Every structure is written in structure tokens, then in C-alpha cells.
Amino acid sequence: MSQHLLALPIVLPMAAALVLLLLSNRTSERHQRQLSVAFTALLLLINLALLSRASGGELAFYALGNWQAPYGIILMLDRLSALMLTITAVLAVGCVIFACAGDDQRGAYFHGVFQLQLMGLNGAFLTGDIFNLFVFFEILLLASYALLMHGGGKARVGAGLHYVILNLAGSALFLISLGILYGATGTLNMADMARRVADMPNDQAALVTAGGLLLIVVFSLKAALLPLYFWLPRTYAAAPAPVAALFAIMTKVGLYAILRVQTLIFADSPAEEPIDAWLWWSGLATLVLGAVGVLAARDLRILIAYLVLISVGTLLAGTALQSPAANTALLYYLPHTTLICGALFLVAELIGQQRAKAGTRLVRARRLYQRFLLGGLFLVGAVAVAGLPPLAGALGKLMLMQAVEDSARLWLWPLLLLAGLCALIALSRAGSVLFWASYKGEVAAGRVSGAQLAGVLWLLASAPLLVIFGGPMSEYTQATARQLAQPQVVIAELLGDAPTARATRFQAIQGDAP
Amino acid sequence: MEALFSLVVGVLTACGIYLLLRGRTFPVIIGLSLLSYAVNLFLFSSGGLRTNSAPVIGASISPTDPLPHALVLTAIVIGFAMTAFVVILAVRARSELGSDHVDGQQGEEGDTR
Fold first, then answer.
1. Residue B80 lies in a domain
2. Count of H helices and E strands in chain B?
3. Considering only residues 40 to 79 of chain B, which have any Cβ-Cβ distance to chain A shorter than 8 Å?
């Protein structure tokens, strides 16, 4: 049983999605909600079990259909994927609880599609096969299209059209890069590909570099790096609140894929240098544009979407440094920024509910009904996301700044601190408009329901918890960074001394032929 | 054969990208389909182009690489589903936004982009 645990994060949401889709017209919404929360909580437990298994440093592999590597599709669990799985499940629990307050009834099949989205996310984090990564990307994208459209409306359809078309073009690029890499290396297993890239003859090296860079372009589109980020603010602002909160992990899927490909396949290959250079400068530029964006935003949701961009810029500039210290820092910063950005989208929805027509626009409006509660939640979220002490954002940024060396410091330190300052200014301006600049007298109606509050608190609790458990957490991320720095261990454990060259494979097949 | 094949893939890609950059949803969708045809052909060629060789052991003297065939099949299925989705979405956008422009706004008078 325990060896099949590795496939459960994919199988369970798939089964849950089927059950919820089939039941959606037959049972009451109450039952559906209970089932959906129960399935998501179960997924969290499974992912925590996987996290505890991975934290020992052991690598786990699962050959689907028992087709062995490098020919079959392999699921691979290391510390990085276990961490990403856990973040996804924690975020999903908060989102699904929040959605149970009523957002799920605005359209059809919310819970089923939500589980499909989780399946795609978990699969993308677990797979060790690069074409399989493409398939899981498509699953999570298709589910995200449906979730984005949930509830309908002009803004959602308009933003959705851009998002879908851009991602379809991205998928075409993904396939082209996979074709190039398969043509050059003759394998799709990431570990096997890494081994073949390492002893690639020089005339093929240019082909691998081209394929690798194309792959990074595709992942940058998902991660919303500078020239490819234009879809993000409108999409995130238009999505229903629980979906926008879940989308906070979507940019991190791109980041995960970049980190995985960069540390496993292209470490020490000719593609490494151009990839790092591109990531570094576009990461910094994204940081600057995110900072300008938060100052220019006239709507709370757009502001939060630009905060997501700031975190993307910070994280990707960190990956470009390619040092274990930088990876430690950014893996510590990643859960914090994901969960807090998710929580802020939920808080924005609550604020919008109580301001009647004004919604989340940053204009003078009626006074909020529960201004102390919402103000408190907003304050905690703002302090956390701007990276002020005593919450975890400050620690993460500090670790990242310490990890940077020499001339890179001159660039990252001022930009990172400036972006933090811009976020602080924008958030305090937004807060004072939302909570203080209100008309006297009339008070808008609408109370925060218990489920909504529980969802927000669940996500916001991560900010203090990540500080309180900062010691074990940073030890874990440090161990993760060490593991990422040794791709040869993965290759040796998975493949042993299987034959490498493509020619031998074909001779073997022909030898078996009658 | 290689020259003809690469020419076809190149022309399909160029047409696809040109149409993808148009302003209305219909040419954009056609562009996406052309692009996905080009990509599927390209993916097919990644195992090497050979004549008179089946991807089945024993069916011909030298079998060709079967994996790109499987990849292309997967890509076709996914591309098909996505095209169906984007067509429905475009129809919905036409009715909700009142225009088939990808930005949801009609261009200037006489604008035929």
C-alpha cells in the first residue's frame, strides 16, 4: 500500500472529481460541500504523509503500469515536490472552505472542476517525465479555464479569452521545444535526458540550448515573467475570489518547472548560462514593473495581482543565482507569499461584498459593516505580503538578500527593498481609502459568514506559523536546496547503469525482432 | 523529403502565427489550429523521417521510432479538446461582449483587421 501512496495525490482528486461531477445534480449542495471539503482535507493528509516521507532525504519513484525508467512514465518524489504538494493542499483547503459560503453556487460544477485542477497541479509536481508534465499542464489549464469562467460575466469572458488563447499558443511552443529535445536526446524521462545532455556532442549542443530556452519561455509564460505577464492582472482580478486565491499557486507551477528543469536537466549544460542570464534580468524587470503596477492600481484586486508579480520577480531572480543558499531562501519565501497572496484575494472579496456598488475599487464609499474584523485581516495580510517583521515575509527576503553575492547585490538589494516600499505605500493607501475614507451614516449590509472567515484565517495563519516554525522550515528548505544541487543522485538512483546511447536501444529492438 | 517536410511545417507555422496576430476571434482560432497542425507534424518528425518503415517490430526491415507517433496522438487529442473549448468561448464572448474582437471592442469605422 505504502508504495502506491505516491500515485494517490493524482488518483484521489480524479476520483473525487468524478464523484462530485456525477453527484452534482442528484444531491443537495450541502452534501456536495461536505464531500468536497472532506476530499480536499484527505488530500492534505496524504500530501503531509508524503512530506514526512520526503523529509528524510529519501527519493521515491513510482513506475506507472510498472514500465520501468527510462521507457515508462515515472512519478518522482523529492523534497521539492513534497513541499509544493503540501502548499497546494493547504491553499486548496482554504479556498474550498471559502467557496462553500456561496461562491460555488454561482455556476455549475465548481467542486468537480476544482478537484480536476488539483489533480493537474499535483501531477505537474510529481511527474518525472517531461511529456507527462505537458499533459498535466494541459489538465490544470483546462480546469483553470472552466474555473475562471465560473459564474460568467463580461469581465471574466473577456479576460478568459486572452488567457485561453495565450496559453494555447504557449502549449504549441511547449510541444515544439519537446520535439527539439526529444530529437536531440532521444528520451523524455527528465533524469535520462539530464544524463544525455551532459555528454552531448558539440554539434547537438546548440539544438539542446534552443530547446531548453524555448522550454523556459513556456514556463515563464505560466510564471508571468516580464514580457509575458500581461495576461495576469486582468485574469486574476476577474476570477471569482476562491479561484483567484487558488491561482496564486499557478504562477508557482511555472516557477517549479523552471527550477526542476534548470537544476536537473540543464545543470552544467551549455544552456545553463543563457537561461540564468535571461531569468536574472527579466526577474529584476518584473520586480520593477510589479512595483510600478501596485502604485498605479485603482482596484484592490489588481493591486494584489501586481503583488503576485512582485513575488514572481523576486523568486525568479533568486532561481537565476543557482546557489544552494539562494534556493534555500526562495523556497522559504515561496509558501509564505503563495498562501498570503491567496488570503489577500479572499479578504478583497469580503471587503467588496460590504461596499455594495463600489466593490473593490479604491474610491470613497459606504462604511464597512464589519470594519474592525476586515481591517484586522487586511492589516495582517498587508504586513505579511509587504515583508515587514515580525512575519515570515521579512525573514524570507532577508535570507534571499544574504544569499546574493558581489555585484548581484548592487542590483537585487535596492530593487527588492524598493519593491517592498512601493508595496507598503500602495497597501497603506488602499487601506486608508477602504477603511477610513467612507461616507458617514449609512452602513452597507452583508456579514462575513463563518465559512468565509474560516477560509481566510486558515490561510493567514501561515504567516505567524512560518515564523514560529521558522527553524524546522528553513532546515527543510536548506536540505531541499542541497538535494537540488545534486542531480546526479537522482539519475543514479533512478537509472542505475542502464545503457545510454540511442543507437544501442534500436539495435536491441532489432535484435529481438524475429 | 526533408526539404518538403520542413517547408510545409514552416509555411503552416508562418500562416498560423500571422492569423494568430489578427484582431478578431475567428482568424485567431484558425491560426491556432494551423499552428497546432504544424506542431504535430514537427513532433512527428522528431524521431527522424524514414520511408517504408512501420513503428512496429517485425512489420518492416528497420522499424522507426514509435514514440513520436504516441506523442502526436496525445497532442492531437488535447489540441482537439482545446480548439472545441476556444470555439465555444469565442461564441460566448461574441454574445456577452457584443463584438468578435479579441479585446471585446469594435475597432474604428472601416477597420478590417
1. yes
2. 3, 0
3. 40, 42-43, 45-48, 57-58, 62-63, 65, 67-68, 71, 74-75, 78-79
| ipTM summary value | 0.92
Provide the shortest C-alpha distance from residue B110 to chain A (in Å).
23
Structural domain harbouring B77:
2-48+63-97
> Do residues A287 and A416 make contact, with C-beta atoms less than 8 angstroms apart?
yes
A169 touches chain B (CB under 8 A): yes
Q: Quick check: is B105 in a domain?
A: no
pLDDT digits 0-9 by tens, A444-467: 667 888 899 999 999 999 888 988
**Mean pLDDT calculated for residue range B49-62:** 81
> Could you tell me if A4 lies within 8 Å of chain B, comparing CB atoms?
no
First to last CA, chain B: 37
Closest CA in chain B for residue A511: B57
**Do B43 and A178 count as a contact with CB atoms less than 8 A apart?**
yes
Rounded distance, CA A39 to CA A26, Å? 18
CB contact, 8 Å: B33 with chain A?
no
Residue A28 has a CB neighbour count (10 Å cut-off) of: 9
Q: Pull the grid cell for residue A77.
A: 518524489
From residue A481, give the alpha-carbon distance in Å to each of A192, A230, A260, A278, A368.
21, 31, 11, 21, 45
Query: A60-63 and A74-77 as β-strands: parallel, antiparallel, unpaired?
Result: antiparallel
Residue B82 touches partner A, C-beta closer than 8 Å: yes
Q: Percentage of chain A with pLDDT > 90?
A: 59
Mean pLDDT of chain A, nearest integer:
89
Residue-wise pLDDT for B21-46, tens only, equals: 998 999 999 999 999 999 999 999 98
What is d(CA B66, CA B90) in angstroms, rounded to the nearest whole number? 36
Out of A153, A162, A514, name the one closest to residue B58 (CB): A514
Best of A175, A235, A502, A512 to substitute, by most chain B Cβ atoms within 10 angstroms, is A175
Q: Which amino acid is at A312?
A: V
**pLDDT tens profile A83-117:** 999 999 999 999 999 999 888 888 888 999 999 99
CB–CB of A246/A147 below 8 Å? yes
| CATH at B39 | 1.10.287
pLDDT over 90, % of chain B:
53
In a domain, B112, yes or no: no
Q: How near does any CA of chain A get to the CA of B95, in Å?
A: 10
Instruction: Indicate the number of domains in chain B.
Output: 1
Residues of B whose CB is below 8 A from A154: 96-97, 104
Q: Is A179 on the interface with B (CB under 8 A)?
A: yes
In a domain, B9, yes or no: yes
